[in-house]
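Trying the structure run again after the queue cleared.
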Amino acid sequence: MSVTSARPRRAARPLVLLAVVLAMAMASTTALLGGRASAEGDAVTAGSLPCDLYAAGGTPCVAAHSTTRALYSAYTSRLYQVKRASDGATRDIGALGAGGYADAAAQDSFCAGTSCLITVIYDQSGRGNHLTQAPPGDFQGPAAGGHDNLAEASAAPVTVGGHKAYGVFIAPGTGYRNNNTNGIATGDQPEGMYALLDGSHYNSGCCFDYGNAETNSRNNGNGAMETVYFGNSKAWGYGTGNGPWVMADLENGLFSGVNRGYNANDPSVGHRFLTAVVKGGPNRWAIRAGNAQSGGLSTYYDGPRPNASGYNPMKKEGAIILGIGGDNSNSSAGTFYEGVMTSGYPSDATENAVQANINAAGYAASPTAGAPAVGARVSLRATTSCCTTDYLRHNTADNNAAIGAVSSSSPAADKAAATWIVRAGLGDASCVSFESADKPGQYLRHYDFRLRVDTIDSGALARLDATFCPQPSHNGQGVSLRSANYPGDFVRHYEYGAYVASHGGSHAWDSAIAWADDTSWVVTSPWG
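Done. Tokens:
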């Protein structure tokens, strides 16, 4: 493998130029949030987007990833690739004009009636540092050959500047990587990075990272990586409150400051859209973060490398990871919208200009219409033409789930069996779990692909088996419920039984016939 060294850092520009850069970023707000300028996309001020601003500050992007928008004002090409389950075909999703937002309509059209996975997140820098399915390392992934899962393409809908877009929803077992990069910092070379994340989607698993990691997917010792980390793990480091925290993963340590373990200046953060920044150079590094929707960046740490052996000098290797640790530890959760890596140590002024542009971009949540609310009692009605009076229920003779007809004249026991209490997802709080209304403490879960009601122990696998993520439905009615730990599998009825099923997979219940209808459910008032 050959890794090209990062470019030498250019001399710092005068402060007056940085003031101009900041003014440009703020002035771009009107253009970014205004009406559509053409059929191709919105007008963008030249030089106003994140990688333009980093270049103006003398620390150019060497990797730029986003599934929501272009990160250069002149960028017109592909952002990411999706692969649909129905026939295995792929499609690149590009930007709507120079510096534009993602063409989400192209994804919606291509993936209509089926499911899609994100197979490639393209690098906009021109260096070819694309992110693809992470291979096995010290830890194996759940996909074939020990690879990690790929993200479901419609799992993280948002709007950006009023335009529909999709983020990268990382469930445990999902991850992306590039071990053969060009221009990424190695050794003790300076670099910067930011990641724009969903601040409400996290867990304590190791490790939801974006940034610089080992090139062999293994733990090569202290200082071998440098990434943004986001989550509430306290295993290696933490800050004030209960988390989550923005920290730096430097291998064998999540650092919230100069010390191992606790550092008081790293606060818990709770922004729905979060800008998280890490940068590092010879015996200096920093953590910064802020609300991606408004306001500036706060500096949580800026000082010398950790006072532990192995981190000064650093031994960075130059791979790029997303959603996993450097050794392919893959039990984390999070959602990624955009991020970059730079050559050289960016100034605070440059990062402040980037943050102003992120504010101006106009990220906003896009809740799934018809999704069940946590705490509600609901029933789930099938939408296939054969079965529109049938509801998802548990059997009385065994623990299996099925669909069955329920009406106002049905026995009370049948009504109760078709009623569920919606809980925050046991394995991922951004999703949901369904507690049986008449079997308190038992939850709908998949086991060997069959759905059943069961008591859920404290194990991570069982809790994920009982967690489902509502998404826009495959047939336009109600919602579809994606398995939290099998990104391509959705709750489906098949021959009146209930399963988690992929579209056209190897099992009988994966049949492509009526798959879109069978995986769509209308959330109704409870029968019991």
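The longest strand covers residues 273-281. Worth checking whether this holds up in the mutant runs.
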